[in-house]
Amino acid sequence: MYSSVNTIWVLLGAALVFFMQAGFAMCEAGFTRAKNTGNILMKNLMDFCIGTPTYWILGFGLMFAGGGAIIGGLDPFVGGDYASILPAGVPLFAFLIFQTVFCATSATIVSGSMAERTKFISYCIYSFCISAFIYPISGHWIWGGGWLSQLGFHDFAGSTAVHMVGGVCAAIGAAILGPRIGKYDEKGNPRAILGHNLSLGALGVFVLWFCWFGFNGCSTVSMEGDDVLLSAGLIFVNTNLAAAVACCVTMIYTWLRYKKPDVGMTLNAALSGLVAITAGCDAVSPAGAAIIGIVAGLLLPISVGFFDAVLKIDDPVGAISVHGVCGAAGTLLTGLFAVDGGVFYGGGFHFFLIQCLGVAATALWAAVMITIVFQILKHTIGLRVSAEEEMKGLDITEHGLPSAYGGFAFTYDDTPDGLPVAEGDVPVETSVPVEVVSPAASAPVSSDGVKMTKIDILCKMERFDALKRAMFDIGITGITACNVMGCGEQRGKTEGYFRGAKVEATMLPSIQVSIVVCKLPVALVVNTAKKVLYTGHIGDGKIFVSNVENVIKVRTGEQGYDALQDEAK
Length: 569
Description:
The protein has 569 residues and is of the alpha+beta class. Helices cover 54% and strands 8% of the residues. It has helices at residues 4-30, 37-64, 92-113, 120-143, 147-151, 159-177, 198-217, 226-258, 263-278, 286-310, 319-337, 350-378, 387-392, 394-399, 428-431, 464-473, 522-533, and strands at residues 434-436, 453-459, 480-486, 493-498, 501-505, 508-517, 542-547.
C-alpha cells in the first residue's frame, strides 16, 4: 500500500531540490562576468535536461539495482527489482524523480569552478558522464546497499555522495582547464575578477538555503510516526543553524583579516554550512550543528585562499571549497559529533574511521574517473575555448548571443596586456582613424601659455583594462571612463539568433575614455592607444582629438594648466 503522506513529502522534496538549479544558476551568474551569463544559464539548464534521461536510462539502475535499469527497466512491470530499496509507502516513480534531482545537483556543482572558459560541448559531455556513472556508482556504495552502507557509513542527505563528488570533479576540472586569462599577474599573484551582479549571487544563496530544507528535511522520505516527525524537526533546525553560524564566523574572520566584512565570502559561507551539515543533520544535536557551522565558516575562507593563492586553481565561485572541502569535512565531523556512535559521545573511533574510509574512497573514485573523462575531452574535441573567445565572452562565441542583458551596459571586464589578437589586413598606422575637430593652427592656449588637448577614445569593453594600464605606463595620471552604446556606419552586425530570429546588434556596448593632456605629446597618447586597441576588424574603435579652451577645478577654482595638477592644497 502506498502512503499519500510519504509520497507527497517525497514529491515536495523533489520539487524543492529541483528549484536548487535556479539557485545555482543565479549564484554562478552573479559571481562571474556579464559576458558569460547566457552561457552559464544554458549550462545550468542543460545539465539537468541531459542528466534527467541519462539517470533514468543508466544512473538509477546502477545506483539502486546493480545495473538493472536499462531502457524500459524503470517500468514497474519490466525488469529491475527495486522493492528492497524503495522507502515505505513511496511509489517507484516518486522515488525516481527524488533521486534524479539529487543527481542533477551533483552535476551542476562542476559548472561554477570551470566557468568562463569551458567549451559548451565539452561541458555537456562531462555532465552526461557524471550523471551516467560517476555519481551513480559511488551513490550505490553509500545509498544503494553497497559496501559503504553495509559498513555503516553515514551520509544522510549527501555531503559526500552529492556535494563532495561534485566538488572533487570541480577541482580536477579547474586544475586541468587552467586559470582564466588575467587571473594571475606575472609574479603568480592572484588578481580579483569581480562578478558583475552581487544581487543575483545573493538571490541564488537565499534560493539554495530555502531549498535545502527540502534537500535535507525531505530525505527522511517519510512523515509518518512520532520518531520521524521529531527527526524532521531536528533536521530543519540543524540545517538552518549550521548555515547561520557559518555566515557569522566567516563574516567575523574576514572582518578581522581584511578590515572589512567580505560580502561574497559571507554569502558563500551559508552554502558551506549547509553542505557540511547535510551528512549528519539527522544524527547530531543542535550544539553539534553549531560546531559544524563554526568549522565550515572557518574552513571556507582558508580553503578559498589556499586553492587561489597556493595551488593556483582558479575557481570563480568557490565551488571546490564550498562543496568539496566542506562536504568532506561535514561527513568526517559526523563521526565526531553524532549523538549515537560519535567520538565525543563515547562511541569510540570505529564509526569515525568508517566515515574517513567512505570520504577517501568516494573522493578517489570521483577523481580518477573525472580525470579520465577530462583528459579524453582535452585531447579530442578540446576542453577550453581559445584566448580570443574567452576575452570576447562565451555568450557571443559559444551561443551567438550579443548580451544576456539586452539594452543594458555593464562595467568593463579585466583583461591583461600582451594577449594574442587576430591579425588584420590594414597596417596599424592607418587602421584607426584620428579625427581632429579643430585645426592645430587655431588651438587655444591657457593663460599661462600651455596648450591643452582632449583625447576621446571609443574602444571595446574587453580592451579597457589594457588601455588603462598602457596610459598609466606612458605617464597619464587622469582618466575618465564611462559605458556607452553606439555604432559606426556598419550599424552593427548580425551577431546571432534569439528564439530563431536574427539579432541586429545596431547599438553595441563600448567604453568611452577621456583624457586631457598638456605635458605629454598628443601623438604619443594616440599611437599608444592604436597599438593597444588594433586588431584590424570592425569595432576596434575611434580616437577623437580636440582642443580645450579652459579647465576649471571646482574645489580650488584653479584654471588651465594648474587645474590639471593633482597636488592637494
